[in-house]
Design a protein that fits this description.
By secondary structure, the chain is an alpha+beta fold. The chain has a single domain (4-156), classed as Aminopeptidase. 28% of the residues lie in helices and 31% in strands. It has helices at residues 11-21, 74-88, 103-111, 147-156, and strands spanning 4-7, 33-38, 44-52, 57-65, 93-99, 115-116, 122-124, 127-135. Strands 1, 2, 3, 4, 5, 6, 7 and 8 form an 8-stranded mixed β-sheet that branches. The longest helix has 15 residues, at 74-88. It binds coenzyme A. Coenzyme A binds next to β4, α2 and α3. Coenzyme A binds at residues 62-65, 70-76, 102-105, 107-108.
Length: 158
């Protein structure tokens, strides 16, 4: 199956996709960027979102693939698409999270050279998260002292 990934500025449309995928979760925010993956018939196969937390720190906030389209590397493509965007925006570091048993996500993030930001799971609401990050530029070392602050902000994000 051939897929097309397009940036989507239609918040009403992405809100309805988000509701289908993450009924329990709150909306990430109107300030986030959204990408929608379409199958060759124009059907929605998945979506992903990201936001710049500062000029240098990007946060990959959500990603979901519909059941029918899982296992076709779409998640990997949506990671690559957002990494390109983050680099073009000038981000030097990307942070994200994975829920405890989301092994498919973890595998794909590790393949994209994300690393675990902490040795242990981080409690968040009723869940526990692995916090993961990827350094995009050498200068990210300068952010070391502030990274905990950005991770905390990510945890507080809706
Ligand atoms: C997690 C999710 C985004 C993956 O999407 P996807 O497009 O099917 O992922 P991909 O096809 O790119 O890759 C899946 C990979 O993970 C592997 N995988 C799947 N389940 C796995 C498991 N339980 N343990 C280890 N690896 C697993 C697959 O084998 C595949 O690797 P392969 O290509 O080498 O076989 C999708 O399952 C989903 O939408 N889940 C619900 C929402 C969610 O959990 N989102 C998490 C981000 S917030």
């Amino acid at each position: 199956m051939k897929y097309t990934i397009k940036k989507c500025g239609d918040l009403a449309k992405v809100r309805s996709i988000h509701k289908m995928a993450f009924a329990e979760d709150s909306w990430p925010g109107d300030d986030h960027e959204f990408w929608v993956a379409y199958d060759e018939h124009g059907g929605v196969a998945g979506f992903a979102s990201a936001v710049l937390m500062t000029t240098q720190v990007a946060f990959f906030s959500r990603c979901a693939i519909t059941l029918k389209h899982r296992g076709f590397e779409l998640h990997r493509q949506l990671i690559t698409t957002r990494l390109k965007w983050a680099k073009a925006e000038g981000a030097v570091i990307v942070i994200t999270y994975v829920t405890k048993f989301s092994y498919a996500s973890m595998v794909n993030l590790l393949r994209a050279e994300f690393r675990f930001a902490s040795r242990s799971l981080v409690p968040c609401g009723n869940d526990e998260w692995h916090v993961m990050l990827k350094i995009l530029r050498e200068s990210a070392g300068m952010l070391k002292g502030h990274i905990t602050q950005h991770i905390n902000a990510m945890m507080e994000a809706p």
